[in-house]
Design a protein that fits this description.
By secondary structure, the protein is an alpha+beta fold. The protein has helices spanning about 5-10, 25-30, 40-45, 90-105, 120-130, and strands spanning about 15, 50-60, 60-70, 75-85, 110-115, 135-140, 150-155.
């Protein structure tokens, strides 16, 4: 259930496909928020990958969130989802997750997967609310030595 402030924030925002013009902003956001650090060139390259989808959320006239996922062998793999700190808890991450799930349903995909830092409790809570379950761990996966958790979600007609 979303609160009134979350609903107002969601109404003031728009979701759209990322463009090359968004690459610098997405890279800065990724680096600032400690996500998988991609530079602008990495985002531009992803835009040319046929099985990749990149979405952004604009609010207050600027990009404040993004998500990147791939369709690989009949599954959707969420590679990166970042919401700028000042814009968290406003439903923007949910908006991006809804895009991911809408795409899965429209393509008949029933399995989704992702990796997340084991210590990222807010992200884990979001993913679990969508039905993701932890299925594995990759010790020391990230450059800073943190573990990654592997999560999957089976849609099964949801």
């Amino acid at each position: 259930m979303t609160s009134a402030p979350e609903e107002r924030a969601a109404r003031r925002s728009q979701t759209r496909k990322m463009t090359a013009d968004d690459a610098e902003t997405a890279a800065a956001l990724s680096n600032d928020e400690g996500a998988a650090t991609w530079d602008a060139l990495a985002f531009r390259r992803e835009l040319d990958v046929p099985h990749a989808r990149l979405e952004v959320v604009e609010q207050d006239g600027r990009v404040v969130a993004f998500a990147v996922w791939w369709e690989v062998e009949g599954e959707l793999d969420l590679l990166n989802l970042v919401v700028e700190g000042a814009y968290r808890r406003r439903g923007l991450g949910r908006r991006l997750m809804d895009c991911l799930f809408d795409e899965a349903r429209s393509r008949g995909i029933t399995r989704l997967q992702l990796e997340v830092r084991a210590q990222n409790a807010p992200a884990l809570a979001l993913y679990r609310s969508y039905g993701y379950e932890v299925v594995g761990r990759r010790p020391g996966y990230y450059a800073d030595g943190q573990d990654a958790l592997l999560l999957t979600c089976e849609l099964d007609g949801r």
